[in-house]
Design goal:
11 strands; alpha/beta; five-stranded parallel β-sheet; four-stranded mixed β-sheet; 42% helix; 9% strand; 19 helices
């Protein structure tokens, strides 16, 4: 039987049954599992000095060399176990290689956590003879368990995403599946091995077969703590926004100072650019911009101690700025085609032309409220209009920046003066006068703001409110 696989990896964690799985795989004629081949503290198994002739030092210097040995020197198809804290350099090699068969082993995280605590307490990580079994009860630590759970979930999400984006399929196993000889034989078939087992390997024994009540001293406290966990992630903010790129050509560096401004559209861009120009005493139009990634990397290498920063604006104020600058008033910065569509298809109550004598404060509030309604549908993926950078969530914009290099300082507009002064001091410059933010639009936000506008903005930008801790605009 051929599958196109050259080797395999078992993605697992401590106390998930990976030793038992390895023992059964090694019982097949044509499969050989080599333990924790990329554990940073040993190679394959504790107290071993080499694996397939590769020393730990050689493995650490060139991880791919050990993978080559496993592919070329194993008895049949070779593989190993890999945990979330093993050599991260190997992860990309495996996940990007369709010739690597992926086996994902999971266990109820509460069971694995309690088993791990007992193994720590007893020092017994394997059991082959029940007469030598060491017993202990443990205390459940809610904070420790949450960290344990977060690590497991984060690693599982990485695996899931990479398998999806590379179009690969893994063989998934639960802890209870390990007791099925039929499942083991199915796994062998997946790996391209023709051999079959009549029975499972009986050399390894379950170490803690008792129910959790008998193993956890503070069982009732554990139950209460687990009840508080959001098992189904009900509190999450659904996110249907498209992922954004780094938008490097929009970054602006100072003329000479080692400062790089990474703008969030519809924020105080012009004001920060003016401040950045003033720090070196140059005209704002001469500031370096339209950089590509290569040029920006050269700038960063040539500016040791540089600082990269951005400025967040309150979601209500930012939406109002986007509305006024990009939609309301026809002109060079207006998205004319989107403006027409919003008027015709979404019935946004704005004048066909400008100025309009009938456009008063009440009309402006109604138009802005209508725009917020459009944004709610737009960011939820329910419109045919693009999610523009001018009104995308600031969370998505900063995540896009991180694809190249995240800003190391994230300032808020209402604290911008002190933050910019601190940045100037950190690069050895005197700070120019704090930038003055100029209101945009025929009416200021303060003229139309009320609880209804705040609620509408929260419905659009809940993700920004939660992630950045914004309160009401005023």
């Amino acid at each position: 039987m051929t599958t196109g696989f050259d080797y395999f990896v078992i993605f697992a964690e401590m106390r998930t049954g990976s030793n038992f799985l390895e023992s059964n795989l090694n019982a097949f004629d044509g499969i050989e599992c080599h333990g924790e081949a990329f554990n940073p503290h040993f190679i394959g198994y504790p107290n071993r000095t080499d694996l397939l002739g590769i020393t730990q030092a050689q493995r650490d210097e060139e991880p791919g060399r050990l993978i080559g040995a496993i592919k070329g020197q194993s008895r049949g198809i070779g593989g190993f176990r890999f945990f979330h804290d093993h050599d991260p350099r190997v992860l990309d090699l495996m996940l990007d290689d369709p010739a690597c068969a992926k086996i994902v082993l999971t266990r109820n995280p509460v069971d694995s956590y309690v088993s791990w605590k007992i193994a720590q307490a007893t020092g017994q990580w394997k059991l082959t003879n029940v007469k030598r079994r060491r017993d202990s009860t443990v205390r459940f630590d809610a904070e420790e368990f949450e960290r344990h759970l977060a690590r497991l979930q984060a690693f599982q999400l990485v695996l899931l995403n990479r398998l999806q984006t590379t179009g690969q399929v893994a063989f998934h196993l639960g802890y209870d599946d390990l007791q099925s000889v039929e499942v083991m034989n199915g796994l062998a078939r997946y790996l391209g091995c023709a051999a079959r087992l009549e029975a499972l390997d009986a050399s390894l024994k379950p170490q803690n077969p008792e129910p959790l009540e008998a193993k956890v001293e503070n069982y009732d406290e554990m139950v209460r703590a687990l009840a508080r966990l959001d098992r189904f992630d009900l509190s999450r903010t659904p996110n249907f926004e498209p992922r954004r790129g780094a938008a490097v050509p929009g970054y602006v560096s100072a003329a000479r100072a080692p400062l790089l401004f990474m703008p969030v559209r519809s924020g105080p861009e012009a004001e920060v650019r003016a401040w950045l120009a003033a720090i070196d005493g140059v005209p704002v139009e001469t500031l370096p911009t339209q950089l590509n990634q290569g040029a920006l990397r050269r700038w960063m290498r040539g500016k040791p101690g540089h600082r990269r920063f951005t400025v967040l604006r309150h979601p209500v104020a930012r939406a109002h700025a986007a509305f006024c600058e990009r939609i309301l008033v026809p002109g060079p910065g207006c998205y004319s085609s989107i403006r027409r569509t919003l008027r015709k298809a979404y019935k946004l109550p704005i004048p066909a032309d400008w100025p309009d004598a009938g456009y008063d404060r009440a009309a402006h509030r109604a138009a802005f409220a209508g725009f917020l309604g459009f944004l709610k549908a737009n960011l939820a993926g329910q419109t045919a209009i693009r999610v523009d950078a001018a009104w995308a969530t600031q969370a998505a914009v900063i995540e896009g920046m991180a694809q190249f290099g995240a800003p190391d300082a994230i300032l808020r507009e209402d604290e911008m003066a002190a933050g910019l002064a601190a940045l100037a001091g950190q690069v050895g410059r005197d700070a120019p006068l704090a930038p003055t933010v100029t209101p945009v639009g025929p009416f200021a936000l303060g003229d139309i703001y009320d609880d209804g506008i705040e609620r509408a903005a929260r419905a659009v930008y809940q993700r920004d409110y939660v992630l950045f801790g914004f309160g009401n605009w005023r």
